[in-house]
Amino acid sequence: MRLRAIAVLLLWAALFWALPLLGRVAAGAPVSEYLDFPPRTHFVPHAPFAWSAFALYAILFGAAIALVAFALVSARPVAAARAQARFPWWGWLGLALNAASWFLAWQDDILPPEWRRHVFTPLWLGYILIMNGLVVRRRGRSLLTHRSAWFLVLFPASAGFWWLYEYLNQFAGNWHYVGIVARSDWDYFLQATLPFSTVLPAVASTWDWLRQFPRIDAMRLPPLKARPVIAWPALGASLAALAGIGVWPDALFSMLWLAPLALLAGLQRIALGETIFSPLARGDWRPVLQPALAALICGVLWELWNFGSLAQWHYSLPYVQRFHVFEMPLLGYAGYLPFGIECALVMDLVARAASGRPGLMGSDPCG
What we know:
The protein is mainly alpha-helical. Helices cover 59% and strands 3% of the residues.
């Protein structure tokens, strides 16, 4: 099981990297500019705003939100257990770290710029400690305290995971960074890797926190049965979409979030016989809806805390670049839903590779 999980992650990363290049090669387009490391993104002009595309994506985003709402309304929660512990001291430390980092990130005159650019990492480390502290207070144990080894491995795994997205965004050009000063490629790599390492731990911690709410942890929908053979069409479609991003980045901009998810789910289903989608066959949608909701919560906070920071990212999305909430166009938040599910798949495979145990797919992630 461990070797298969490692193989799935390595093959997925290799295809993630190679397919956009192969797409450009097949189209006779140059590829040398995409081979530099670390990958850097710049502003790329895209197709103008289109109401037809906006309406289509708005309908899809609204349907996804309605699905979550229906699952919450249909839930049959059991009585919540009483708090088992006090909020831990390190949770208070996280709260102080988060508040201080947020304050310093948005102030111009307290820290020198070379320090202010780096407060995003301690801000998110504080958030991660807060979320785990809230879970300890409610349940008496958390991912940080009772699955410590796996949880700590998520930090380097997260850095590698997001660097893949930085690479893919070279082709799509959906975001770029401003306010970053790096003396060399190595300096840029170190500056970026630290905040990238907090992505998976933040989503995992938020997911675990959401599970403490009885209604959220009782979400159910009608069973959705899919035969195993569907993994092959999903795999084929994702391969084509990733290759296509290198050629038609505007038309396939949403595939930046959907194609890697479908590719990883297909590979995991073929290699391991199950994925995070397997519980849907018995009406248990929690492993899908909960991480999607967790990533959306993190996404709102990412965009909020990015808004006043010195080192920022800005967006340039084709067809839907309008109605901004912070720096993000409104419909850009839809990408956080499949991204959360993909995070859950990666976390599960990292857990299987490290210890042979699932991640948060099980009924008790700390058990």
